[in-house]
Amino acid sequence: MQTSARSSALWHPCTQMYQQDINPVPKIARAKGAYLYLDNGQPVLDGISSWWVNLHGHSHPAINAAITDQLEQFEQVILAGFTHSPIEQLAAQLVAVTLPPLTRCFFADSGSAAVEVALKMSLQFWHQTAGPQTVEPESGKPERNTFISLENGYHGETLGSLSVTDIPLFSSQYRPLLIQHLRAPTPDLSCKQHDQSDEEFLLQRFAQLQTLVEQHQDRVCAIIVEPLVQGAAGMKMYPPIYLTWLRQLCDAHQIHLILDEIAVGFGRTGTLFAHEQAGICPDFLCLSKGLTGGYLPMSCVMTTDKVYQAFYSPDVAKGFLHSHSFTGNPLAARAALASLAIFEQENTLQKNQQHIHQFKIKLAELASHPHVAHCRQTGMIAAFDLVQANGQPYPAVQQRGRLMAQYALQHGLLIRPIGNHVYFIPPYCITADEIDQMFAITSRAIDWAVSQSVSLAEASMPAMFNLP
Fold first, then answer.
1. Are 196 and 297 found together in one domain?
2. Is 308 annotated among the ligand-binding residues?
3. What is the pLDDT of residue 365?
4. 293 annotated as belonging to a binding site for a ligand
5. Which residues does the annotation list for site: Participates in the substrate recognition with KAPA and in a stacking interaction with the adenine ring of SAM (predicted)?
6. Which of 134, 249, 256, 333 could hold 130 in an S-S bridge, CB 3.0 to 4.6 Å?
7. Which domain covers residue 89, as residue numbers?
8. Is 126 annotated in some ligand binding site?
């Protein structure tokens, strides 16, 4: 495979550039449907939706047309002091497709920024009000200044979002800058003991969270979680009942619930939003990645009228004084509107049920491989762990997952294992034959990766497979 010498000016994200200098990454020339095309013409099946963002396929004609049409009108306008039809329509559409009482939309430009907005809104709400039922600025609760997040959770890499992220690789260098928060044990089912049922394990983990809340309820603003799937931790999964209990706990102690659906929203879990499966609604819903169909940067925090009213005041200082230069960008808004329309026009969620069933079958086949363990699936997200013949994980230094990714790319498939955790999050336009191809290449990649000597496995591999 040909690779291009990188520009000396370019610093890639989430990448150890030392490794890229040794093994330059491939260059993409174009993309269409479920495929990326390298500059040498080789097609590569996009098994990860280009970092979990693309929904309907690359270069979708409806989204292309919407952006092109908007370009002929205007490309950007300040949203502080002005408004425009695309962003008004998008806010209305998002309210229409979510459960009550989410009726207010605040737009930002990235997933991390959305989490920052939700954290700041929750904190300021408590400083300005006595509780969800009362809007009395004189009776605020400034002692509420702490958040609870889950072990292994990931919520972004700006300082606020990183503070509630529990992945040391990302956060340890910046610990002196981060706000303090409380951490609850993960409900990830792969952590349960062999003699525990799923329910026993979940009840145990939830009881630990409940104790934490009871000990600190007077100073907790909100609990923030990734619903159903902890993505950057390695696609760790848990069932909807935990979210149901979590909503009840937050209600009992008057604590906000922030659901970070940045990765799992817009159909990834089988429903449009993951929290639908628990029959609940959060106080804050963070959306990004697939919001524009994977085309343009945009995020949104949806919240309730009760939260909105806590900021509604003649006093400017009581307002939510947070902004981004490109907030509500009309090009991104048109892309998002087109993406939402595609769900209805192409009957996407119902069609995805066929893919979900096929994933289940292919995962079951893969589970018999001696180097595969912990096969798991939530909707259109499927994952497994790469293990040694004795069932134990490979030492991280051997980088077997990255060896898999190298083999797969050479044979026309983009995957990006997180350590020993291998996952699939393809665009929804993927076909049954392409799903078969994806799993077949992956199976061969496992065989090749586990057959390599330790010295080769420990050598530097392409930097693009270094991190989540």
1. yes
2. no
3. 98
4. no
5. 14
6. 134
7. 65-345
8. no
